[in-house]
Write a structure and sequence with these properties.
249 residues; mainly beta; Immunoglobulin-like; 11% helix; 44% strand; elongated
């Protein structure tokens, strides 16, 4: 490989490659060279990786055999912290939630609540700000719930979910009850389930959230308390299913 060809690459490590794959890059080509100078240590072999991403983005990595190691712990931590990676959490393994020093503020105390809610909340394409991938799944007993995305609008937000009963016995009702949303500043939001559709052991729908999270909000915590035919149904599945959602600035 010529020096000119090597100029397309940047010196990197295996951790950098995994990070880019997690962020949506795809491997286009891979090469081996028995020496990587002048990019890396003189006379050391290296792997060269060409990557592509949507939007005609290109990148090249040179990973030399320099003795460094990328641990399994680092890989798992990378997957745990990256928002775009699906997360499957059991209730037992979920981290203990922070307990606020004061009760959460209802929407009427910090913003302009929508009334009547949710009928008066209009989420139109012209007011859509962005769509955040959430990609989190949590299982309690035999019921798995996944929050797939959060759509942020000027006047509110909408979280998309899917649910599946994984046990042998079919659940006739998968309606979500007791949803609640609180942000990292201790503000409580109006919440309502809509567009619910149940087919056998599968269900899907959306959760409306209002008002729109303020710009100083960095995290929403969406909690679902009960799933069943009714909130007081003895056969209902009791959670909670808890989803911390990191927001972009």
């Amino acid at each position: 490989m010529t020096d000119h060809a090597r100029s397309r690459y940047e010196l990197a490590g295996l951790g950098d490659l995994v990070q880019m794959l997690v962020e949506g890059w795809q491997v286009a080509h891979m090469y081996y060279a028995d020496r990587c100078d002048p990019l890396g240590p003189e006379g050391v072999p290296a792997a060269f990786v060409d990557l592509r991403r949507a939007g005609d983005e290109h990148a090249g990595l040179c990973i030399p055999a320099d003795g460094r190691a990328f641990s399994h712990e680092s890989l798992v931590a990378l997957f745990r912290e990256q928002d775009g990676i699906w997360k499957h959490r059991s209730l037992e393994s979920f981290p203990e939630l922070d307990v606020p020093s004061a009760p959460p503020q209802p929407a009427g105390e910090w913003g302009e609540p929508v009334s009547p809610f949710p009928d008066a909340l209009v989420l139109a394409p012209t007011t859509l700000r962005d769509v955040l991938p959430v990609n989190q799944t949590q299982t309690v007993d035999d019921l798995a719930i996944a929050i797939t995305s959060l759509e942020r609008f000027v006047d509110g937000a909408r979280a998309r979910y899917i649910a599946q009963a994984t046990g042998h016995e079919s659940r006739a009702h998968l309606k979500l009850f007791d949803p609640a949303v609180i942000d990292d500043c201790g503000r409580m939001y109006q919440v309502a389930g809509v567009d619910e559709e149940v087919r056998g052991n599968h269900a899907g729908g959306a959760i409306l959230i209002a008002p729109a999270p303020p710009r100083d909000c960095r995290r929403l915590t969406l909690t679902i308390g009960t799933v069943g035919a009714a909130a007081d149904d003895p056969a209902a599945a009791a959670g909670p299913w808890v989803f911390p959602i990191t927001l972009n600035p």
